[in-house]
Design a protein that fits this description.
It is globular and about 55 Å long. The chain has helices at 4-26, 130-136; strands at residues 30-32, 38-40, 62-64, 67-83, 86-103, 109-112, 116-120, 125-127, 144-147, 152-161, 167-172, 181-184. By secondary structure, the protein is α+β, with helices and mostly antiparallel strands. It contains 2 helices and 12 strands; from the N terminus they run H-E-E-E-E-E-E-E-E-H-E-E-E-E. The chain has a domain at 62-184: Immunoglobulin-like (Sandwich). Strand 11 and strand 12 (181-184) form a beta hairpin. The strands form 4 sheets. Strands 3-4-5-10 form a 4-stranded antiparallel beta sheet.
């Protein structure tokens, strides 16, 4: 008959060895690092982060879905757009982005100005003002337009922003549900 102390000691030793081996193998498992990436446990996580790609700026075409956007110019546009009686006054002040929108898809697509947002230095986003865009350039179709493949529209997109806001970029998309692709304004 076996001595219970020997069996207990052997079982404890086996368990300890098993845990030690498991602990050693856990040292090579991937774990989340502070920067959201993965690193091997026990390995140095002081690797250099990959640089973020540069955000394109003015006059640089940006493809998103079926549209190619090019921000041609950006400027403060005052507090009133249009000519009376077809004019509109901003709640704050208008900021204007001259935008070219090209259909790079295989079928007609409808551009809606609501697919363009303005972002300020604090990360706040502002919707475009379709009525202000109409009054600013009645012949332009940058508030809503069906664009056939290979065609483009160009004109002002206006944003009613509080005075003192510093716009930094626009976010463009080909639908109302997209996060938007940034285009730097300065």
């Amino acid at each position: 008959m076996f001595n219970i102390r020997i069996v207990t000691a052997t079982a404890a030793a086996t368990l300890a060895v098993g845990l030690a081996l498991t602990g050693c193998s856990a040292g090579t498992a991937d774990t989340a690092s502070a920067d959201g990436g993965t690193a091997q446990a026990g390995a140095s996580t002081s690797h250099s982060a990959a640089p973020k790609p540069a955000v394109p700026g003015l006059n640089t075409p940006v493809k998103t879905g079926t549209f190619e956007y090019t921000a041609l110019a950006a400027k403060a546009a005052g507090t009133t757009v249009g000519t009376a009686p077809l004019s509109q006054t901003a709640q704050g002040t208008y900021f204007e982005v001259t935008l070219k929108v090209a259909n790079i898809g295989d079928s007609a697509q409808t551009f809606i100005v609501n697919d363009v947002k303005l972002e300020d230095a604090n990360g706040k986003t502002y919707d475009a003002d379709a009525t202000a865009a109409i009054y600013a350039a009645p012949d332009a179709q940058t508030w809503v337009s069906a664009i056939n493949p290979g065609n483009a529209v160009q004109g002002p997109v206006l944003f009613d922003i509080p005075s003192g806001v510093k716009p930094t970029q626009i976010l463009v998309s080909d639908n109302a549900f997209g996060k938007g692709t940034p285009i730097r304004l300065g």
